[in-house]
Amino acid sequence: MGFSYNKLWKILIDEDMNKTDFQKAVELSPTTVAKLGKNETVNMEILARICDYFNCGIEDIVTYSPRKKTNEDENK
């Protein structure tokens, strides 16, 4: 499964903020917002800026679920 930013998107909905407003407020690049939208990893500094802006902890914006191991992973 990996990272999920669903909690972040819920905060944006609660704050009545769209992704463009979010990008400008936190001073993020469009590429970073796209990575967040695809649940890809981003720099911890970015996550810290988001937490600072919303005055929250990292657990309030991101969740992590370990990925299931495949046979190929077990053979390494």
UniProtKB/TrEMBL annotation:
Gene3D superfamilies: lambda repressor-like DNA-binding domains. InterPro entries: Cro/C1-type_HTH, Lambda_DNA-bd_dom_sf. Residues 7-66 form the HTH cro/C1-type domain. One of its GO terms (molecular function) is DNA binding. It comes from the Bacteria. This is XRE family transcriptional regulator. It comes from Acidilutibacter cellobiosedens.
